[in-house]
Amino acid sequence: MTDHVVEHATCLGCGCACDDITVVVREDRIVEPERACSLGRLWFGTGAVPARVRTEGARDVPLASALDAAATLLRDAARPLVYLSADISCEAQRTAIAVADVLGAMLDSVTSGTAGTGVLAAQRRGRASATLGEVRNRADGVVFWGVDPAIRYPRFASRYAPDPVGLYIPAGRRGRVVMAIDVGTDRAPADADHRVAFTTDEEVTAIELTRAAVIGRGAGGGSDSLAERTRALADGLRGVRYLAIVVDGEPVAGRDPRRAEAMLRLVEALNGPTRCVLVTLRAGGNRSGADAVMTWQTGYPMAVDFLRGAPRYRPEDGAAAQLARGEIDTVLVVGSPLALPDEVRARLGAAGHRIAIGPRASESPYETDVAIDTGIAGIHEAGTATRMDDIPLPLRPALRVPSLCDTAATLRTLAARLVAGRAARRPEVA
Amino acid sequence: MTRLRITGGMVHDPANGIDGTVGDICIENGRIVATLPPDAPRLDARGLVVMPGGIDIHAHVASSSINQARRLLPEDHAGAPIAAPVLAHDDNGEVLIPRSGSGGVVPSTFTTGYRYAGLGYTTVFDAAVAPVSAREAHAQFDDTPIVDGGCYILMGNDALLHRQIAAGERERAREYVAWLLGVTRGYAIKVVNPGGIELWKRNVRAVGSLDDPVGDPRVTPRAIVETLADAATALGLPHPVHIHCNNLGLPGNVALTLDTMRALEGRRAHFTHLQFHAYGGAAGKWSSGARQITDYLATHPEASGDVGQVLFGNACTVTADGAVEYLLHASSGRKWVNVDVEVETGCGVVPYTYRDRAAVSALQWAIGLELFLLSPDPWRLVLSTDHPNGASFLSYPQLIRLLMDRSYRDAQLATVNQKLLAGSALADGIAREYSLNEIAIVTRAGPARLLGLTTKGHLGVGADADITLYAPDADRARMFETPRHVIKGGTLVVEEGQLRRAPAGARHHVRPTYDRAIERTVREFADRYFSVSLENYGA
Description:
heterodimer; A: alpha/beta; nine-stranded mixed sheet; 15 helices; 20 strands; 22% strand; B: nine-stranded mixed sheet; nine-stranded parallel sheet; 18 helices; 34% helix
């Protein structure tokens, strides 16, 4: 490829999935991802990735040999796990799930080990939400609850809320009330119009008291500090027409696991007195895409067990727990090995065999029996990814590296081998 | 299989005036042809009923909103794990991976495709696709095998459209509609609760009249449906504007439904899931408005509809109509998902159970049946359950039995809550029983005609070889539940009652031409108010 520019590229550096990036390429290297934030720049890098196909002992082998080896290991596995990591497209995710289905494997994704608590709470309770564009166009009140998006979601404020002009918010930032809720050391944005602080121990009670005040079941004239703060907060929340409460869906150390459901209940209760939506911030690499694709193919967004020939939901007993018990003997990680949650990465050693197919697979921080480097979705590979609010976006790769395998195509070939092998082993009775 | 002669079946092909005549159907390269050489392979259909493949004119199977419903129902899926089918190994080099899935009221995509085909349905339209999420809808259809698919694109609450109406630019609106259909690969214009979703975003939960202003006084439900009905006609779309009226599910809403129909008098329009919009009375005193609807249809050939039948059991309400889902959540206490979707629409999900002992459920069930049984013209009032809102598509055979078998229907009627049924047509006794030909009309020929699908819904020369063969059975539910053979595009997908092949379905979409000047208008609007780049919008 020569020097060129790719416009309207989608960045998967975080779940904001900014799709206004102009990627400048010179001498087959990304030299400038224009408009990308600091995280986005890190994510794009220069676009240089290894392009190896290796089997045990770090030997370089032809792709066909590596796929044969992978198919053999997976077919012979008693209890295989297919794990969806980051930086793969929805198209690759669709095929990876097919591989898990054919194998009767356990299937899990990064969501399970990160945002799983919130996903489960929403399944129990439901969830009142909106797409980010709706928040931008309509929210006259924005609450940042224990999160400053500037840290993990740098362009959230400028692209979605509170900064931009919206359809019904012509004054932009000045047309919105911004409320900051500090929780322990998790500070909300400094430039908020109002600020309330809770300790981490207080947080869930504070959410519940705020909800009680919203629905008129407040603790009456309670004058302790928490009751006063939550009553005032409830008044503020009810006072806007269209409220967005922004929380971090990714792990935050030291938070009470009941917080997710309490927050859903608060948001639900605010619908009635006013309109209110919850915005759950998610990290990048198309991890929310995995939730969507798993849901449409299997019925469940994470932690699916195909062992008995059809999907069963195992959210309380996902990949990390099964690895910890030593039940998994062969793991296929699809996607970036560097994005694995610690609880999974640390336990991969318990499995007898490890296969990695994804960006930088050959540089996995654990030993692999087979490693097939593929491109990064959105940098080297086309396809689709979803934003944190499930909006699908096309990927516009800036780099094409002929020696680099395509993730979805590699998985399709692997799936075909597994199907052919299965048919050969179990001939159909005429 | 490139050729096949289906011999000796009782053919029901109402579009071609054939009502149970014994004859042969010849297939070559996926199409129906006049003749085949004598040595062509044969499928013995003696004693079997032969119909075109079923066409679902209104279901929710492939969209971001139906995926919200899937995600919300793990407990429902848990009761219905579905193993992958055992498919035939045809030696054509194609590697097809049979897929497992989840059943329940909102099945996973592969299971959805297999099960529609297993019922003899070969074409399914998703009735509510948000433009900004159209890419996901198509991806879900890509994972829904066998059936042809298509997307209706939500437009009735689109902010740019409303601006055009406010500016008196109704004719320019058609250019925007054409652009939007093309960029989303849509098939038809869908209107859900015209103006009402925008009002819900402002915390207004019901529409008072067709002339309620939606922001600007010139933007009203009336102006919205008129503009979009005219756009569909002017663009020559195969299907007219597909309308979900205001105030779905609210007692007394039939008046507004009839107002909407009258507003479009003389214009082609399709009114969907009419059962949910045919309630007379007031809170606590619901009554049937079915006869008012069928009387209107009898004298207005330009209007068509589908029923949206309710059947007893578990369902899941899922709609772009966020307001109604909020109200249902508030009244039922069931869990609730809401997603307000930028610029154009919304989404709400509430799981729901229709109980035969509950007065309102029983009335809803009765109203649906009344619409069918009082219908003046089966070509213009066709079968749907608004899957999964009124019931799962898997209950179509049960519905067909209710329509074909009066004694079965009357026996069920006797067991349901009678509180709100007094004086209703169904309680007074309706003798009508649908014939096989009428069933073929409301499930095949009628939907095809309303959708403008000229090669579907009939078995004449040139038609797509989408064909279902049933073994006659006095129990019509059993008959329609288990077709003996199903052929899709010339491929025998169900063979002797077993799903054996699962080719990919096609996608139906339109690409009307438009005045390119509209692109500038869209760009100016998108640059300010879209959260995605215009280049990345659509599908």
